[in-house]
Amino acid sequence: MLTLSGLKPSKAKAAIHHELPPISHCLHPSSLPFSAFSTRNRFIGRRRLCIRALDAAQPYDYEAQVSGRSEQSIKLRIAIGGFGNFGQFLAKTLVQQGHTVLAYSRSNDFDIATKLGVSF
Fold first, then answer.
1. What is the mean pLDDT of each run of 10 residues along the chain (120 residues)?
2. What is the 3-state secondary structure (H, E, C) of 97-112?
3. Do residues 10 and 1 make contact, with C-beta atoms less than 8 angstroms apart?
């Protein structure tokens, strides 16, 4: 809740602040296992290790963009020469898997191709 009435925090904001868990978590080097620090560095830098924020998925996240590209690259554009029984079976199966199918036949099977979602 945002208030612009003064410099004092509102009561609702103060109540929410106390209910939320802390965002940062700190560890003292002595609480870590012995193998985490070498003996040379053990006595020199005894600073606290603090986690200030955690990564969250964002709409502009690079990993999300890459996964979207890989899903698009998996989809194929397939042409089938001959739209008889087996050609129709192949076209139906490939369309169900999300591929783009173009069929060609000497006979005019445009109506069947349209029902199956195939370009003719």
1. 52 51 58 52 60 65 68 82 93 93 91 90
2. CCCEEEEECCCCCHHH
3. yes
Report if residue 1 sits inside a domain.
Answer: no
Residue 66 lies in a domain: no
Q: Is 120 exposed, middle or buried (0-12, 13-18, 19+ CB in 10 A)?
A: middle
The strand pairing partners of 50, in sequence order, are: 26
User: Nearest-CA neighbor of 117 among 91, 97, 85?
Assistant: 91
Report the number of distinct structural domains present in the chain. Answer: 2
Domain assignment of residue 40, given as a range: 21-51
User: Taking a C-beta distance cutoff of 8 angstroms, is the pair 112, 83 a contact?
Assistant: yes
| Residues 59, 70 contacting (CB under 8 angstroms) | no
Give the separation between CA 95 and CA 110, rounded to whole angstroms. Answer: 16
Q: Against a cut of 0.90, is the pTM above it?
A: no
